[in-house]
Give the backbone structure.
Amino acid sequence: MSSNGKNGTSENIQTIDIVKEMETSFIDYAMSVIVARALPDVRDGLKPIHRRILYAMHSEGLTFDKATTKCAAIVGEVTKMYHPHGEIAIYDALVRMAQDFNLRYPLVHGKGNFGSVDGNNPAAMRYTEAKLTRVGESLLDDIAKDTVNFVPNYLGNSKEPSVLPCSLPNLLMNGSEGIAVGMATRIPPHNLRELAAGINLLIENPDASIDDLIRLIPAPDFPTRGIIVGTDEIVRAYREGHGNLKLRGRAEIEMDDRDKPRIVITEIPYQINKRSLIEKIHELYQQKRIQGISDLRDESNRLGIRIVLELKRDANPQVILNNLYKSTQLQTSISIIFLAIVDGVPRTLNLKAMLAEFIKHRRVVVRRRCQFDLDRAKERAHILEGLKIALDHLDEVIALIRKSADPKDAKQGLMSKFGLSDVQAQAILDMKLQHLTKLEKQKVEDELETLYRRISELEDILANPKKIDFIVKRELSDAVTKFGDDRHTMVVTDIKDDGTFSEEDLITAEEVVVLLTRNGYVKRAPVGAYRFQMRGGKGLIGATTKAEDVVNKIVSTSTLSTLLCFTTRGIAHTVRVYKIPSQDRASKGLPIINLLNITPDERITAMIPIESFAQAYLFMATKKGVVKKCPMSEFAQLRSTGKRAVTLEEGDELSYVMPTSGSDQVMMFTRGGMAVKFNEEEVRAMGTTAQGVRGVRLKGDDDEVVGMDVVADVDEVLVVGENGLGKRSSVDLFRATHRGAQGVIALKLTEKTGQVIGAVKVKPEDQVLLGTTSGKVIRIPARQIRITGRSAQGVKLITLGESDSVATLDVLSVGEDADASK
């Protein structure tokens, strides 16, 4: 209130509606926060504070190829010239632009302690140093060429850019977060290569749909990697401008040196505090909400994150991991809000609109840069044209200047006599004597010719929008070549109603070998781990076995297949191949009882890789020669306790199982070197509890079935003895019999051959896998094994050590190994 007059009357008092005043003041305040503080500009993806920091560093010459300087100096410069809102806020913004766990492509290179993913605070600004990264500097390219508008700084004694030229789509590339008055933005980071592909598509086809863009930009890409679960919400955010996504850390289940399981976390979700995550896991363990953890260690270092959860031997690793996803921030939800400043107004945008605004900005920048270069080129050409006139009339120019009273008179004389402009006349007067030579005259003419071509080129670009678009695409492509990289964050699409997803979504299809020892240790390894050797080689360690343990099952299959496992007791179980631990060639594996619900006295005697349960039947054979045929559909759905496949006599075991069509020809081989061949139609289909019928008559109590396969007369079979000899023989050499017969000779047994350990069907292009009692495995091209008659002894397949013998045989079919040529 103000007063006027001697008597204190208040003539200048105004009556104001307090409601309207509050509304006006609040709106002014809100718009100031929204536009000048909290929300990024859609063109360069920066808030004013970040833009001012980058511009100040650029003005101070803190480029990527120069030395760093103290952050205190940078903060002081920004405070002094551009941003008078507190040093702490400026330093916090500077630090964030240097943190590679916050920005997908950091804009500032920091030297010193800039904080960590554990939530540690950065060192004080007087201790740290910084400069621009190559990416950060690229946001300011051509800023001196009138590519963007400048506005007065807060003091009015200098100017600052209202936006940066920004040759990269920084808003989506690095994302942004901010809370304004009544609104907020949260834009996640994306992969530069994918963004460039989407931008190029939109330049070439402005009518491209958001679905077209999503094919090129499937999801955000976080600097801390992780796994995005489901894409429906991402698609909604890209279409509508808001949504949510689920993000998981990456965890692997491993076996330690003592055959105990452990969970190793190597990636955590974006902006999750690692220390808090570990503390939460420890808290859940202490509260017994998660049981089975014996130790928790943080083994992270500068190379990456590694959190190790040692588990008890009887713990179920997958159950514990699922609980971690459910109860900790190892899985988190991230909101997406595509809100940015567009033409001074906050707007919620979809993916296409955001990319379109960036393209629009880049077109303006390129056009203004070309116009700037054109103006400079014309100015220079204008001066050179005057110099050329002077050099063409050199004697006259010199005489005129010598006769002039002063420079002003000389300039006026040059302008009058030769029709020169003020700028041209001044350039002639400023010209040094050395430029009067013939060589200098030629240089002027050459430069003028170059400028004419450049002027023509720039005018053509400015007159042709397609050429401007070409430059935008070319410069973006150059930036992608410099800064682009592969996607960090995996995306899985198959999620359940409760938001969980199958482990299978995280598994890459890969051809593998599954090895099972007699004592029940199982593992998988890439097929390529067992390199080719010539027939007669010594083999490689396939599994480190305990004393008196041997590798007795080798199956080649895919990580995405299902293994139908049959036990000695005739019980069927299933396990997905990817659940079998992947270990190196020399590891002994994981006890299979950790994967299947079997009793200690059971052994797995048959493992059938199943891509689907569409085959007609499963044909089974026991150790004592009993056979049985069951519909495959009987085993499509199995309980965790398994399902009975055959009822066995006392002392008998289920040994072989294979899928058949119902009319196949079956061969069975015995340890005594005999083979029987008959049509499976002689065996009727039975239920799962049936006992079966006799398939082959054995020679004695010590004889047993050692092989069974489905064959045609054009096929070949490989018979292998325990001493490492083997042979290929044509199936048509074996006369057909009926089930229950003793059969014909398959391998002539001698001391050199030993008894038969196995027999399988092979093709010349197949690869043979042999395992020995000492744990060695050899892979041999089948074509290297000689074809002989039924009663031959065969050739040496593997060189065995003392007291070693062949224990297992399997065939890797053609096409299953992509490294077959190695």
Remarks:
- The radius of gyration is 40 Å.
- Residues 351-392 form the longest helix (42 residues).
- The longest strand covers residues 551-558.
- The chain has four domains: 46-165, 250-329, 355-483, 507-812.
